[in-house]
Every structure is written in C-alpha cells, then in structure tokens.
Design a protein that fits this description.
Elements (H helix, E strand, L loop, with lengths): L2 E7 L8 E7 L8 H14 L22 E2 L2 E2 L20 E5 L8 E3 L2 E2 L2 H10 L19 H11 L6 H5 L6 H12 L8 H15 L9 H5 L7 H17 L1
Helix pairs in contact: 2-6, 3-5, 5-6, 5-8, 6-8
Length: about 250
C-alpha cells in the first residue's frame, strides 16, 4: 500500500507548526496505525530527517496515550483507539492528514504529542475516594446492587485519552468528567465525597481552559470506549444538588 501522509510538525511548545508531506510505501494492511508511523520514522531516520514524535505506551487500547486526529476524526474512521486502528481501513493511494489533539487545555509539546496533565489535575481535584488502604476487604463487605455496579463499570471504562475533547467543537471535557463522577457516584464508597467531588472537578475543568458542553454529542461518538452521553446528565444532576447544598 502506498500512502501520502500530511503530518503536523512542531519543534516545541513555542515554535510555529505546519503540515509536512511524506510519501510512504510498503504499508501492510495488517499494520496498526502506529506501526505505520514506526515505518515512516524508520524511513525518515535513514534519510537523516528528524522522526515524527507521537505518544504511545501499551498499544493495546488500554492506556489512551496514542490519541491522534486522523483526517479530521479523533482516533480515525473507526470507533477504537489509534493503536488498534489497522491500515486495512485505508486504501492504496489514500492521503491521510495526521494532527495532534486541538484544545487550549492540551498544549502541543512536539509534533503529535500533547500535554494532557490537565486531566490529571481534574482527577487530583476530586476524582478519588477516601478509604483505608491495606489488605483487600471481603468481597461482600459492602453490598452494591447490580444495576449500580454495571453502571459504574460502564463509566469506569474511560481511559482518559482525550478524544472527547478533541472531537468537541467547544473542547469540553464533560464526558471525561461525567464518566469519573458517574463511576464513583454509583458506588457506596464514593458517597462521602460526592458533593465536594463534582464541585472541585468542575472548578478545575474550567480553570484548565476546557470549553462548556452544548450537548452536540461528538464526544460520545468519538469515544473509543463508547462512554454514553448520559454521564454528562448525571454530572449536571450531581452539580445542581451539590451547589444547592453548598448554598
């Protein structure tokens, strides 16, 4: 397979960036998208050109590090992570544009690598529970109704990749926050901090420069773990209740 790649190149956070065009041949349909970028980097190194910087870690669709905007779509044309997107999705002769996530809260570090530590700070603000650590408790010590457990597991699938932010025209992280708030709010262990959690997380979200949610739904459509849009409704419900009690 022969491809034309238009890739965002940026030397550093304060440098000007631009799209660079590369021709790549010998791409197998069985390659993942990241393996295709590995092949390109091997070619660039042989040519004496600086390789393209991009994020990856597990390459198993678990960690969320691999997020890229591929021809205008977060993670590409399939609902999956970039590392699990295979080149058989594309055709011989295709032109593919590859860019980093675009959001003020995700500043570009270099090329396709962005700083997503704003997500970490949102979690540090309230995405946790306070429990005594040590040996694992007995499994039935705290009963959890199955519907609540199922809902918590569904929301806990979020891997924090940032596709929701990249896909949202407002660069909102409400789906990410909604997943975290719903996950912990469905469990008995998450109740003591529940009001403070949502207030602190939303405050940090706004401080980081993420946009507001206008319920367009692009976030859920792009989410590789298919987090449902209604976690945002749960977040808004918790936020209203917390604000009422705080007031």
């Amino acid at each position: 397979m022969n491809l034309t790649l238009k890739i965002w190149r940026q030397a550093g956070p304060d440098a000007a960036g631009a799209l660079a065009t590369y021709k790549l041949s010998g791409v197998s349909g069985d390659m993942s998208f990241l393996e295709m970028l590995d092949l390109l980097n091997e070619q660039l190194i042989e040519e004496g050109t600086e390789p393209v910087a991009f994020d990856s870690d597990c390459r198993e669709g678990i960690c969320g590090m691999c997020g890229l905007m591929i021809s205008g779509v977060a993670h590409g044309p399939e609902v999956t992570t970039t590392c699990q997107l295979h080149m058989r999705t594309f055709n011989d002769g295709d032109e593919i544009t590859i860019e980093p996530w675009r959001a003020n809260a995700f500043p570009v570090i270099r090329d396709l690598v962005v700083d997503r530590s704003s997500f970490d700070r949102i979690i540090q603000a309230g995405g946790f529970i306070s429990v005594n650590t040590g040996a694992a408790p007995e499994a039935h010590a705290v009963p959890v109704p199955k519907p609540h457990a199922d809902r918590a597991f569904e929301a806990a699938k979020c891997i924090g990749c940032g596709a929701c932010v990249a896909a949202c025209p407002n660069a909102s992280a409400m789906l990410f926050m909604g997943a975290k708030v719903t996950h912990l709010g469905e469990l008995p262990q998450g109740q003591p901090e529940r009001p403070a959690r949502v207030l602190k997380m939303v405050e940090q979200h706004d401080h980081e420069g993420f946009g507001g949610c206008t319920n367009i739904g692009e976030c859920a459509a792009a989410c590789p773990k298919e987090i449902p849009l209604d976690v945002i409704s749960q977040l808004n419900k918790d936020l209203r209740q917390a604000a009422r009690h705080a007031g």
